Amino acid sequence: xxxxxxxxTIALYQALSPQQLAALIRADWRCIEPGWGGxxxxxxxxxQRYAEMIARQWEVPLHGAGYVVRLVLPADVIRQYDLETVxxxxxxxxxxxxxxxxxxNRHLVGDVQPVSAFLDRQSYSxxxxxRPLASLIG
Length: 138
Known about the structure:
This protein is of the alpha+beta class. The chain is built from four helices and seven strands, in the order βαβαβαββαββ.
């Protein structure tokens, strides 16, 4: 029997609008999507708190809710993209061209996992592996 090959992976976080979350649910938690504002890049964060800050400060005021998901990619796939920082060391993020998101989706390791939800002035932490977001989507 051949030994299992282990690959190095990196956990990343993305802040989502309610529309992006709905698209992720329709894709059975296997496909991240860019926003619909004509952006040229998506930004996958290394730090969950940074993604949560974006969800609270950008998605909630714009859409009434914001969500954070955790996704895992092989390290060799994500390291092809620029790692940038915005102001602070914990604000590290990979910048992926929107045109390459579908190719990156093919490399997802497991399902995308919801980790946080922000509704107006309320916030929720979601235990890893659970899917209680249906009641929070509104």
